[in-house]
Amino acid sequence: MMTTNSFSQSLSLSQFSLQHKRLILPITLLALVGAETTRDLTVTTLSDAFWAVSTYVAFTLVIYHYLSNIMGKTNRITALYNKSRTNQVVFSSLLGALPGCGGAIVVTTQYISGKVGFGSVVAVLTATMGDAAFLLIAAQPKVGFGVMALGVVVGIVSGMVVNAIHKDDFLRPESPQIKEPTKRDIPCLQVKAINLQGTFWKLVLIPATIVAVLGSFQVDINQLFHLPEHSIEWIGAILAIGSMMLWALTKEISDYQSTVSEDNKCVSSHPIQKAAQDTNFVSAWVIVAFLIFELTTYFSGINLHTVFLGYGMWMPLIGLAIGLLPGCGPQILVTSLYLSGAMPMSAQLSNAISNDGDALFPAIALAPKAAMVATFYSAVPAFVVGYGYYFLFEM
């Protein structure tokens, strides 16, 4: 029989337990829209985030995941990849430069299982930009592809240097089995929310892309379709909140990794399903970044662009330091601030090269020493490139 003491202890443990902590975001968005003071600012920000960012990210991701399915069916590239250490470094850099964390995670797990060398790990972690690449490509394609190309070059050079210093099995542990996520491992409510994310983007992707493209050409959508004033802004805000509500139910936040890394996706999932999950993750961090920027400026009158300019030569180091954090969330935050004009290109470059995305999580779990050394090695070229750009173009 439960005593009064044990009952009160158990009550105290469960009383403040919050299920689906991600719901804090959509609830906060609803509160900001409901408050008259912040309504207009929030609706405009959410609308911009959905039409100008989320839609383009979703469109880019759908193409990417369809291409990934096609490319995954060839074996000739795999044979060339395994032919030599040099080829491994080159292909690892190319895999790392692909938007998202998939390529970097593949190379990291292959290193742990003994299929590639340590130089390949450094190459892929240096070249990868994680999910922030989707955001940069969607918003500024020329800059995005330029940063990707730079990442490939720096990744190859870094990997070659490491190969000259270390053997392939440097700091490699005994390889444990890495479990692939399946839908059986996910609670029923989360599975339904995941499926609804795919349905949501399947329905809205084409019309949303049309609206986004028209908006990019400065077409007044409300006037074009004879809608009441601010209609398209409200539609964008409602769709943004709706997508965040679905995203909030797909995964529980239990630790740092579950907060800053993209959701697990089943290998057999449809490309649109995978694109939907990644899009909503990227969108969540973009919305947070945009709202922090806009609300800080609105309530304090402080121009964050001016504030960051005051840090001058420290900005590349700040971008590099954030890049050392595992997960894509903080890196999306940096890219969002760059796109809003609050961070200079030097900080974006140092962050893009130093950040390892979600690939660092399996590395830390299975080969912590190798992960720490590889991260340190990727920070060196990030420092050089970031400050090189700063002294050449921003000073």
UniProtKB/TrEMBL annotation:
InterPro entries: ArsP_2 (IPR021552). The chain crosses the membrane at residues 49-68, 89-112, 118-138, 145-165, 200-219, 231-249, 282-302, 314-339, 359-392. Keywords: Membrane, Transmembrane, Transmembrane helix. Pfam families: ArsP_2 (PF11449). This is Manganese transporter. It comes from Aliivibrio fischeri (strain ATCC 700601 / ES114).
